[in-house]
Amino acid sequence: MMTADLFADDPSQPAQLRLSSEAVLLKGFALPDADALLNDIATITQRAPFRHMITPGGKAMSVATTSCGELGWVSDSRGYRYSSTDPQSDLPWPAMPARWLDLAERAVRVSGLSSSGAPDACLINRYAPGARLSLHQDRDERDFGAPIISISLGLPAVFLWGGDKRSDHTQTIPLAHGDVLLWGGVDRLRFHGVRPVAQGALSEREFRFNITMRKAA
Ligand code: MD3
Ligand code: FE
Predict the structure, then answer these.
(1) Torsion of CA 120, 126, 127, 131, to 10 degrees
(2) What is the number of the ligand closest to the CA of 160?
(3) CATH of 31-214, one of 2.40.30.20, 1.10.150.40, 2.80.10.50, 2.60.120.590
């Protein structure tokens, strides 16, 4: 069951939807920062360009990915892991912008979720129309005590939200530009994915971007 808390005392605050006991959707929470966040992505990807990672099974992902922060997420024939350097350049990943850490801290505070500390790793995903993310769990992080904070920008998408088993029923959750999703605790290991992103009705937006900040170490 989804419950809406409309911040009755402050109508300027966007809706907060509790998807589950430790998963919260903050509709439009990042809207005031959206343009700056997109500019930050453009700066980061000058040094660490988007790439289609190859899964351990040998297939290129339809989603293009890069990272910032102390640790970035990489994939090769050895599997998925976090690395302090970008294997394409052997340079450290670009720093996580202060604006992103500030947004993460504010989102965690508003959500009321408990956290063992600030994120040290951030994946940035780019979805062209048609790109999708199949059902998976995020379990390469060493610290499950901090929630993952995810920011959606650009084209809308349908998020698939499952259970603890791949075969569990999935709910569909629409995600729009500026939405922030947080999940931790008992919801941290749920299977999840993204349906193929649809072409924008207007040609103003080419991509969907998703910023996911995690505490990996
Ligand atoms: C995980 N990204 O980078 S984030 C990923 O929109 C990833 O690009 C997706 O999955 C994206 O690993 C989704 C949002 C999300 C929301 C709820 C979850 C991830 C979740 C619930 C449990 C576990
Ligand atoms: Fe994930």
Answers:
(1) -80
(2) 1
(3) 2.60.120.590
Q: Which of 113, 159, 195 to mutate to test the pocket of ligand 1 (most atoms within 8 A of CB)?
A: 159
Q: What is the pLDDT of residue 4?
A: 52
Q: Is the CB of 192 under 6 A from ligand 1?
A: yes
Burial class (CB in 10 A: 0-12, 13-18, 19+), 126: buried
**Hey, whose CA ends up nearest to atom 19 of ligand 1?**
192
What does the alpha-carbon distance between residue 11 and residue 146 come to, in Å, rounded to a whole number?
29
Please give the model's pTM, rounded to 2 decimal places: 0.91
Residue with tokens 């069951």: 1
Coil, helix or strand at residue 141: coil
- Using one digit for the tens of pLDDT, what is the confidence trace for 129-147? 999 999 999 888 777 789 9
Q: What are the residue ranges spanned by the domains of the chain?
A: 31-214
Q: Given CA atoms 123, 63, 209, 114 in this order, what sign does their dihedral have?
A: negative
